[in-house]
Design goal:
Strand content of chain A: 35-45%
CATH architecture of the largest domain in chain A: Roll
Number of strands of chain A: 15
Number of helices of chain A: 6
CATH superfamily of the largest domain in chain A: Hotdog Thioesterase
Radius of gyration of chain A: 18 Å
Oligomer: homodimer
Shape of chain A: globular
Amino acid sequence: MTSFPRAADLALVPLELEATDNGINGRFELEMRLCRPDGGLFGGTAIAASTTCMEAATNAPAVWITTQYVSTARVGGVIELDTRIVARGKRINQLQVTGHVGGELMFTSVGSTALPREGGIEGQYQAMPTVAGPDNAADFFPGPPQLRGDSNFFGAAEFRSVELAEDEKRTKGSFVLWARVSGQPATPAIIGYLADMSPTAVARGAGKMGGGTSLDNSMRFGPDTQSEWVLMEMHGHLAVGGYGHSSIHIWSPDGVLLGYGGQTSNIRHIFDEADMEKALAEMRQRMGTSE
Amino acid sequence: MTSFPRAADLALVPLELEATDNGINGRFELEMRLCRPDGGLFGGTAIAASTTCMEAATNAPAVWITTQYVSTARVGGVIELDTRIVARGKRINQLQVTGHVGGELMFTSVGSTALPREGGIEGQYQAMPTVAGPDNAADFFPGPPQLRGDSNFFGAAEFRSVELAEDEKRTKGSFVLWARVSGQPATPAIIGYLADMSPTAVARGAGKMGGGTSLDNSMRFGPDTQSEWVLMEMHGHLAVGGYGHSSIHIWSPDGVLLGYGGQTSNIRHIFDEADMEKALAEMRQRMGTSE
């Protein structure tokens, strides 16, 4: 039996947890490795910490979670997570998590944890695309090359890029990466952390580079895995009025569908590859402005 | 300019709305046409009412919403929706909606509304599958035939069934319907209402009939449409321990991607078509039990 919280999740986000009457409280100090390049809370950190709290509060694995990004905590801040069980069934729990810094709301998560039901339906209704394995894939940095090596988000995770064959592209803008948090299995929390990539997937849909700000992240989880590497198959579906929607499939190296999700983002800055220097300067200037 | 609340949405769910300091309050009496066959609140009604409240509170169109189903309101109950704007930006608003009956929590929604940004990214990165139009599609009833004609959910909406060509099936269990609320354009709220079908899509993935109970519904919205009919392209992705995950694409008849979503459900009763009578009797017996 898995025990909760999972050690891998606490290695990623070092939560101090304390049981309450109807859930659990968590807190952690926001380190740069859990931030975006500008020192703001990376959305993936919020969904990961929320998932860990939901599982710890109920001693059961996460089934799905949606995290709504409300405001941006800054590096060095102490994030407090209040996790409440709003419905407790024989097997299924419905939970809500709010993340605050000094009383100000940073994010809200809603989701379920659930114990498996004996004889319950099990199945996978689609196959993984055929791609090169992580050992044969190109190292990839998911941001402007000038920021590589900073001690931010991109330092806690590793990415390698692969291409889909033409007949396996579900959308024009498919964007496929191997990803891992080195040394840790891809738990639901870690999958949520790695999968927070919608803006890039939408930009790819438009044949561009760049990105923007996630408004939310929604993940649905399949079977547990011991694998570190997962394949993130991302698709930008559409954009309207400056806002883009994308989806993600998470695959284990041996083809098990480990998760599935959707995300919406405010696509604030996209650009052609040739204009990267200019775009980077603009992005630095804009960071931190609200819209 | 669209004005909010949209008339089509109030025709579906007759909300009384009252502005508050930081949002809006809504209330409606739960009629049988907005219920499941057993007289419980249909999940689609909850996401539709939440979407309408979010738009009315901010005078802006919904971009995405996730509704978490916590408890089941019963026909005749008065549902009160408390809608709070938790972040208000120049264009983007983050909102939370809770639905109560007599002080007891029934559902929680989180989501965003947003005004389009001039010059913001616009695009659609995949094409609609080729299927027969609604006039050439078979009438479809999304439940046991014995329940047809009851004055429940299935009376407020119309469905017609079409098949995907083999090379356009994204998953084994694709399940494709034309759907409409007759006389109304497919607004975001109406799309959310129609799209609450995950359990059936997952059962189809397993080659079965039947369904279960939705735990949530998450929808992301594209451009506005004046079309009544929409094509709902649904896919069951995977099931584990009795819980299933599915996704949905919503298309206009002329191929515009109007929305995209994901949903998780507790698949409690699936069966082979030949066992429908027995399964129906069991389902009636089980309805209303919690798990």
